[in-house]
Write a structure and sequence with these properties.
2 copies of one chain form a homodimer. The first copy, chain A, has 9 helices and 8 strands. With 190 residues, the first copy, chain A, is of the alpha+beta class. A 4-stranded antiparallel sheet of chain A has the order 1-8-3-6. Chain A has a 4-stranded antiparallel sheet with strand order 2-7-4-5. The structure holds a DNA duplex (30 and 30 nucleotides).
DNA sequence: GTCATTTCTTGTCATTTGGCAAGACGATAT
DNA sequence: ATATCGTCTTGCCAAATGACAAGAAATGAC
């Protein structure tokens, strides 16, 4: 478990002791495919490090269709920041696409670490910075890249997804219909 | 100046003294239309609170076209987080659309406040949370909303922009061509 | 194994948007 | 006043994508 912790919380200011303390604030949790980690309208009280498996988050649009907002793969932080940090009801639902193993940490425990370990708050700020960058890049890609390229990028970055996730859910993440995605795949593969 | 500071750094944990200390870390700076606050490839060493005026950020796509990534209006934090916090060259350029007045704070001064004032680091985390939410919303809008609706939203949220910014720059922010935007405006206005 | 359900593909046609180019309009400099 | 430059609009046609529907394939329940 400590290995996963070390790879997730990488920062020069974090000592071995810091990491031990951080690790002991986490609890291992396993769940089967389909389990809902956070339901729409609930307030998040924890976040997770994904040790193995695949997690998906989605929202509903005005017509009630599911729009996939994120795929979380092993090593990533599984979190709905707005709900956790503003203590507000989540618009997003978190659900396990496959059986998964996660390390869970509660909000209170996180707070303690954030204010008690300078390296941890630095890590936190860098994590946010990275997330912001990734989200901005995603917006930019929606503008500058064709649907085909967005699909190719996703395949390159998170190939696991193609294996386990229905086309429709991938399509909504890419901003197209499953029909279009089907045609795009036809163009690409041969 | 203290008023702007107070409205920008709102958090229950921040006392009057804290705000005074924060305020004194800022310096007022005025600049004329067209001034570049941060050039592509430079490392940001500060961020700003926009007191009045309008700032735009943009990147270049693979063809060298400018893509507007953000419009900053009065009261907002003008910043390129990745460059400032990772001390890395900025992909984005910050430029004044109109003459502007800003409150500037350096990276070192920010660091001191961030680690010296608990309420300030809490404020920082909430700011990041809000930014993340806004960026995610933007991605979602690019997927779920029509170009027309995206334009209407922008008009509603930041009407100042329409007045000062060329159509082409607004169009690239919305992910369409200036031609399309021109047609959309034609549909809307009458 | 069989049935039912979901997922994926494919066809047809409509809509949106882009690429390109011409012309109108407006601001500014001389 | 004229010339010039950037901005905005508009027309024409092409490309990408969506909506809808039918059928094939895969998956899961019993």
């Amino acid at each position: 478990m400590i290995d996963i912790i070390k790879s997730a919380y990488q920062h020069p200011l974090l000592s071995e002791e810091d990491l031990q303390r951080i690790a002991s604030a986490h609890r291992k949790e396993e769940m089967e495919k389909g389990h809902v980690l956070l339901g729409e309208g609930k307030v998040a009280n924890e976040y997770y490090i994904l040790e193995s498996g695949l997690i998906r988050s989605f929202v509903h649009d005005y017509d009630g269709n599911e729009i996939t907002t994120e795929f979380f793969v092993a090593g990533e932080i599984v979190i709905v920041p707005t709900s956790l940090f503003r203590r507000s009801p989540s618009q997003e639902t978190l659900v396990a696409v496959t059986g998964s193993v996660l390390l869970k940490i509660g909000f209170a425990e996180f707070q303690e670490l954030f204010h008690g370990i300078p390296g941890f708050s630095e890590w936190g700020r860098l994590w946010f910075t990275h997330q912001l960058f990734a989200m901005k890049q995603r917006s930019l890609d929606m503008i500058t890249e064709t649907a085909t390229n967005r699909y190719l990028k996703l395949m390159r970055d998170k190939p696991q997804i193609i294996q386990y996730v229905p086309l429709k859910q991938i399509a909504s993440f890419l901003g197209i219909t499953d029909t279009s995605l089907s045609r795009i795949r036809k163009e690409i593969i041969p």
